[in-house]
Hints:
The complex is a heterodimer. By secondary structure, chain A is an all-beta fold. Chain A is built from no helices and 11 strands. Chain A has strands spanning about 5, 10-15, 20-25, 30-35, 45-50, 55, 65-70, 75-80, 85-95, 105, 110. In chain A, strands 2, 4, 5, 6, 9, 10 and 11 form a 7-stranded mixed sheet that branches. A 4-stranded antiparallel sheet of chain A has the order 1-3-8-7, with no helix packed on it. In chain B, the strands form 3 sheets. In chain B, strands 2, 5, 6, 10, 11 and 12 form a 6-stranded mixed sheet that branches. Chain B has a 4-stranded antiparallel sheet with strand order 3-9-8-7, with no helix packed on it. Chain B has a two-stranded antiparallel ribbon with strand order 1-4. The N and C termini of chain B lie far apart (about 40 Å). Chain B is an all-beta fold. In chain B, a hairpin with an 8-residue loop joins strand 10 (about 90-95) and strand 11 (about 105). Chain B is built from no helices and 12 strands. The relative contact order of chain B is 0.34. The interface of A and B includes residues 33, 97 and 98 of A.
Amino acid sequence: ETGVTQTPRHLVMGMTNKKSLKCEQHLGHNAMYWYKQSAKKPLELMFVYSLEERVENNSVPSRFSPECPNSSHLFLHLHTLQPEDSALYLCASSRASGGYEQYFGPGTRLTVT
Amino acid sequence: AQTVTQSQPEMSVQEAETVTLSCTYDTSESDYYLFWYKQPPSRQMILVIRQEAYKQQNATENRFSVNFQKAAKSFSLKISDSQLGDAAMYFCAYRSAGGYNTDKLIFGTGTRLQVFP
């Protein structure tokens, strides 16, 4: 699957580091999403960008900062994370609104030490 | 708020047999979409099947079919002629069709399916 790509695939960072996750979609979609996937919990929607405007921010801590410079790219900037932030971070894209399915990237496995 | 419940954390099936994964949801909306996603061990989530709530006919996609019971708010996935490649986590998901939250997918906790030869 190459429609939605994510880099890096694995990331280990200390609590004082600053890093960024990148997502790129090649499907011509105009909505993009960040999800957090932790063991034995439902996928948690973190951010939604629709038509490059942030429309959803599910009370995510400010140590996570999204950026969507255009409809094809989405970033998640990370700083002063906590060990409980260790998880798989998934990016997805879709056509905005309606019942269009979301297409997912392979995820970034983040470990905070 | 809408919720999605998958009551089977794990299921197993023998190759070539049929298995059904259950999903129930709670909503006060009349128009919405339901999805089943599959996440193999390689982690990339892929869409298996999609159902529009306004359609009475159950969706089918090759060996995958759903049993959509709108009144019961039930949306089960049937996998026929199971194959080793069907082994994965399966997630049921809900998406509103109107209003503010049409871009939001609500997921269940998933069912891990094992397929034995």
